[in-house]
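Contributing new complexes? Match this layout with 2-acetamido-2-deoxy-beta-D-glucopyranose.
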Amino acid sequence: MFALTDLRGVFLYGVSIIAFTFSSSSFYSHYGSTLINSTFKSLVAENPGDCNLKCFDEEGCMSINYDRENKKCELNNATKETHSTRLVRHARSIYATIKSPPVFPECKNYKLLTDASRHKSFYQDQQFCDWNLVPGWYRFSGEAGTMMMNECLPKYDRCGGGYLGWMDGTLPLYAHGIVERIACFYRAGNCCAMMVNIRVRNCGCFYVYELKKPPACNLRYCGE
Ligand SMILES: *[C@@H]1O[C@H](CO)[C@@H](O)[C@H](O)[C@H]1NC(C)=O
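Output block (do not edit by hand):
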C-alpha cells in the first residue's frame, strides 16, 4: 500500500500547472510537457503521485514524466532547471521536478536510541531492559546502530538484555508509508518467545519505529 492518504492532488487543467500538496510540502508539475533524454528508468504507476513516490525511492531521481494514458512513469536524472532545452511539448505527459520528499511528523519528532549497549554486538553479562521506555517514535542512531536488529540472533548475552528484540519482516520502502511489523524477543531457542506489535516508517535516509513498552523486564529492542 502506498501512503496516498497524505496526497491531495489539485488538478488545475487549463492553466497547465498541477500542484500536489503533501502533508508538509508540495511540488508543481507541468501538464503537457516531457523532459527528453534524461530517463534512466521507466515503470508503471497508478497516478502522478504514485510516480512521484517511486522517484523518492530511487537514488539519483530528480524529476518525473508521467504519461496518463498508459500510466508510464519515467524517472529522470536531470530537471528542467538544469536542462531547460530538454523540456518539450507532449500532450499526454506531465512533467514534475521533485523537490524534496515530504517530511512526515514522525520523521521529525522522534526520540533517539544511541546507547552502545543496545547494539547487537554488545557483549556483557549485564541486563538492561526497556521496561521504562516511553511509547513513541524512535530512531536507532550512534553506537546503537542505524536500525532495529532485523534477524533473530540466538544469544542471550547481547545488547544488554535478557530477551533480544528484533524486527520480523522486511524494512519498508519510502513509498510504503507506515507499515505494521512485529518485534520478536529471542529466548532459550525460541526466536519469538514474546512479541510486541510495532510500526515502522522509511523516512528517506533513516527508519523510525513506533515502539511500546515491552510486556516484561529484561526485554530489550536491539540495534544493528
Ligand atoms: C542520465 O540518464 C541518461 C539516459 O539513461 C544517460 O544516458 C545518462 O548517462 C545519465 N546521466 C547521468 C549523469 O547519470
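Reviewers usually confirm one structural detail per submission. For this one: DSSP finds two helices and 14 strands in the chain.
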